[in-house]
Amino acid sequence: MSEGSSLLPLMLFLPFLLVGMREGVHCFEEVNVVNLKKFQWRDVNHVSSCQPQKSRKEKGVTMLEMKHRDYCSGLVKDWNKKLQKHLISDDLRVQSLQSQIKRADSGRTEGFSEAQLPLTSGIKLQTLNYIVTVELGGKNMTVIVDTGSDLTWVQCDPCKSCYGQQDPLFKPSISPSYQSVLCNTSTCQTLQLATGNSGVCGTDQRTCNYFVRYGDGSYTRGELGRERLDLGGTVMEGFVFGCGRNNKGLFGGASGLMGLGRTKLSLVSQTFSKFGGVFSYCLPSSEADASGSLTLGGDSSVYKNSTPISYTRMISHPQLLSFYFLNLTGISIGGVALEAPGFAQGRILIDSGTVITRLKPSVYGALRSEFLKQFSGFPPAPGFSILNTCFNLSEYEEVNIPTIKMHFEGDVQVNVDVSGIFYFVKSDASQVCLAVASLAYEDQVGIIGNFQQKNLRIVYDSKQTRLGFAEEICNFT
Ligand SMILES: *[C@@H]1O[C@H](CO)[C@@H](O)[C@H](O)[C@H]1NC(C)=O
Ligand SMILES: *[C@@H]1O[C@H](CO)[C@@H](O)[C@H](O)[C@H]1NC(C)=O
Ligand SMILES: *[C@@H]1O[C@H](CO)[C@@H](O)[C@H](O)[C@H]1NC(C)=O
Ligand SMILES: *[C@@H]1O[C@H](CO)[C@@H](O)[C@H](O)[C@H]1NC(C)=O
């Protein structure tokens, strides 16, 4: 990012400056330099196996290395197809989120239960992108991280129907620390809130059977158990999890899922006495070799943030208890504040499972036109899936693009990392799109996707109901 010696960016930059001055707008104070060659997929194609992710403990905080899921997904033959698929699934997830919010808002509770919550967890939708490794009953398990659902589960042996995974299946029968959760216990009853389906007694009238349906046919079914969970050296005895005997869906090669939602059964709640209800993550860029971290515990001195953490209010929805909402008060592009009626309405969802940020049409429209004004003179390229602001930059080595800042209640400003502004549809940069999309309707709720959360330390502090942001180059070591 410091190849300031290249003349090209300066030459590209001059015309903006002139236009900016002519219009009397100070548009161009804030720019990012993007090296277009850096984003090629070439290296990613070589990844074909996944090793367990690392972990460590520091000042009572557990840190788990976090990788993009593509790290485990093997050889990719057709990136274009894969990307297209990613975005289509992303849209399905967003539609499902919107219909849930709408339902909850309209107070139509008949037929509504928390059951629908996991529908949004996007497993089937292939949008849950980040994995960590934990030790369950002494065995390494690589699981997908989901902030939108609560029950943590792994596939168990003997298995009635399991998808292929990289690690060996978990075998409760040979683990001395494994215990069944009985169906007459209050723990079994917490399933209702966590998954929407109440726990039911097995045929033996003892075990507590759970069923989580993630919509469109994807599910996990099995019984609740308690097991020793080692999170990077912090051990929790009797952690309640799902032992999945019948699981279906696109979980990649992962052993299961870690639920970081907000109800009683979630990992955050179960580990409250150890970590105080605080976790944070730093999402690496999608390059397969990049690693980030998931930390559990509130001592912020272990983070490697380069700017102070600033906190905004975490807003809860009375019906959608697992979701983390924020009050987005504005967006600025290259230092220019956008004007749009859709700000400060007290609700934008921050989601680790949605990829591309969705904005209300009025906000997206303002963002697009300001971006085009500042990033002008580049050949346009056709839109791609949900993305409609695209350029052909194949002739350029490097370009300057305006910064994007999100503003939240409490005077919090979040600078979107440069890797989160452009989506490279074609690796030769002949189709590069602004990685933000419009919602269909003004009354839908915006979503901050994980593409715009990269290289940020994002702290979820449920105890103080606040969410913090700081800049950090994600790196586990
Ligand atoms: C789990 O993986 C880590 C990292 O590769 C390794 O050091 C550790 O020995 C493994 N633990 C088990 C029980 O296999
Ligand atoms: C649950 O059932 C078991 C026997 O299956 C019994 O020993 C235990 O006391 C029961 N617990 C409660 C809370 O009813
Ligand atoms: C969002 O924050 C703004 C600025 O602090 C405030 O004026 C507005 O009332 C907030 N909106 C809601 C719904 O809380
Ligand atoms: C992009 O621009 C280059 C150079 O001008 C051109 O050769 C190429 O055909 C364009 N590609 C697309 C997909 O438009």
UniProtKB/TrEMBL annotation:
Signal peptide, first to last residue: 1-27
Classification via SUPFAM superfamilies: Acid proteases
UniProt keyword Signal, yes or no: yes
Single GO molecular function: aspartic-type endopeptidase activity
InterPro entries on file: Aspartic_peptidase_A1, Aspartic_peptidase_AS, CND41-like, PEPTIDASE_A1, Peptidase_aspartic_dom_sf, TAXi_C, TAXi_N
UniProt KW keywords: Signal
Alphabetized Pfam families for the sequence: TAXi_C, TAXi_N
Residues in Peptidase A1 domain copies: 130-470
GO biological process: one example: proteolysis
Top-rank taxon: Eukaryota
Catalytic residues (positions): D146, D351
Keyword rRNA-binding assigned: no
Similarity annotation: Belongs to the peptidase A1 family.
PANTHER family cross-referenced by the UniProt entry: ASPARTYL PROTEASES (PTHR13683), PEPTIDASE A1 DOMAIN-CONTAINING PROTEIN (PTHR13683:SF827)
Official protein name in the record: Peptidase A1 domain-containing protein
